[in-house]
Amino acid sequence: MMKRYYLKDVAEIYSGATPLTKNKAFYENGTISWITPKDLSDYNHKYIYTGQRNITEDGYRSCATSLLPEGTVLFSSRAPIGYVAIAGKELCTNQGFKSFVCNDEILFNQYLYYYLIKNRDKLEALGNGSTFKEISRKTLLDYQIDLPSVEEQKTIVNDLVDLDNRYEQNCSIIKSIDELMGCLYCKYFEDDDITYDDIDLGSVVEIVTGGTPSTNNESYWNNGIYYWYTPSDVTASDCIISYGSQNKISVSGLANSSAKLIPSMSILMTSRATIGEATINKFESTTNQGMLALIPKDERLSILQLYYWIKRNKKKITSIANGSTFKEVYKKDMSKLLIGISEKASIEFIKKTKRLFELYESLTSENKLIGELKKCILDTAFN
Q1: What mean pLDDT comes out for the span 215-225?
Q2: Residue 366 neighbours by CB under 8 Å, 6+ apart
Q3: What gap in Å lies between CA 328 and CA 320, rounded to an integer?
Q4: CA-to-CA dists, residue 292 to 260, 269, 322, angstroms
Q5: Please, what are the domains in the chain?
Q6: How does pLDDT run across 320-373, given as a tens digit for each residue?
Q7: How far apart are CA 257 and CA 301, in angstroms?
Q8: How far is CA 192 from CA 196, 305, 353, in A?
């Protein structure tokens, strides 16, 4: 049986604050986790433990932020409205959050977490403001929510909790595999006792630029069949392998633009904005002009060696960027960079990483399916 409550009757709602940013003493060597909405941008986990910056005890005392207990549900209330996470430890936030400490006799924090995710659009519509929309603490205090008993809440979200736990377990293994393959790269391609042939990248890799179909022509975008990557797709993936982009373009969109079709299992690298971020496309794709696609054309160079070479040489790649309006790495300059090639090392590296990469693919694919299944369950549980 459902009962209607005001949020103020089932949770304490806290606002955050920001210590004076000009005062270094409020931030340097800080030990208190301090979360901003930016920390949740492209963050794909339920629990958050720390942000990009910590604050000190003096910083904490200098402003009106609150130390929130583990299990608090964080909800970004502006710029943008609707990021959700659960505090994995005691922490505080800036003023871009309204945070919920649930009365656990009435409201299960996990239930509220999934409720807020499902009802993001509804809550965003309650925001006001001319510069940017913000949902006020008063609006949330007076927001009405229908709740079953706590036991029923736990039953409703049980499958979602299990899926998220599985997702996090997979992420832990995925991270370990990435680190191990990175160590193997260093062992085989950064060893002073191995002789490498230093070759221009353009000699062993085909480098392909991208393009953007006219956004004024709907036929270039409607019913798109080719994934079309932008830098934000790559920076958001946080993964060696990518299973798709946010947008797709049509056959006519590809034919009437400078975008090119990139074969699967190529490297897609950001060449402007954030330079040097890379992923491997699982499926045939295209890119915009802010990307370079790198396709190995020498059997001595594996796709994983190329991926970790980019990862290990990001500073070098960034250093060759040019441009007055914004920095960009051009194809001609990228092709002149030297990469160490050793056929023997490549054979051993491929042998050692083959099973690891297969497991990596399997786990990332499973996590993708978990995300799709969660959406289906959310639609059913909170209809």
Answers
A1: 96
A2: 166, 170
A3: 8
A4: 11, 5, 15
A5: 3-147 (3.90.220.20), 151-194+342-383 (1.10.287), 197-340 (3.90.220.20)
A6: 999 888 899 999 999 999 999 999 999 999 999 999 999 999 999 999 999 999
A7: 30
A8: 9, 17, 21
Quickly tell me which residue has 């949020």 as its tokens.
Answer: 7
CA distances from 279 to 124, 218, 266, 312, 344 (A): 32, 28, 8, 14, 25
Identify the residue whose tokens are 């409201």: 107
Q: Which amino acid is at 240?
A: I
Q: What are the percentages of helix, strand and coil residues in the chain, rounded to 5?
A: 40, 25, 35
Mean confidence (pLDDT) of the chain: 96
DSSP E strands, the chain: 3-6, 11-15, 32-35, 47-48, 53-55, 73-77, 81-87, 92-93, 97-102, 144-147, 197-200, 205-209, 226-229, 241-242, 247-249, 267-270, 278-281, 285-287, 291-296, 338-341
Question: Residue with structure tokens 């995300």?
Answer: 371
| Whether the Cβ atoms of residue 266 and residue 248 lie closer than 8 Å to each other | no
Segment holding 40, helix H or strand E: helix 37-40
Tokens of 313: 């040489």
Dihedral over Cα of 82, 87, 88, 91: its sign: positive
Q: Please, are residues 31 and 56 in contact by the beta-carbon 8 Å criterion?
A: yes
Residues 37 and 96 sit within 8 Å (Cβ to Cβ): yes
- Residue 238 is which amino acid? D
What are the tens digits of pLDDT across the range 233-269? 999 888 999 999 999 999 999 999 999 999 999 999 9
pTM of the model: 0.91
Q: Which residue has the tokens 């209809």?
A: 383
Distance, in Å, from the CA atom of 369 to the CA atom of 169, rounded to the nearest integer, reads: 15
Q: Is there a contact between 305 and 278 (Cβ–Cβ < 8 Å)? A: no
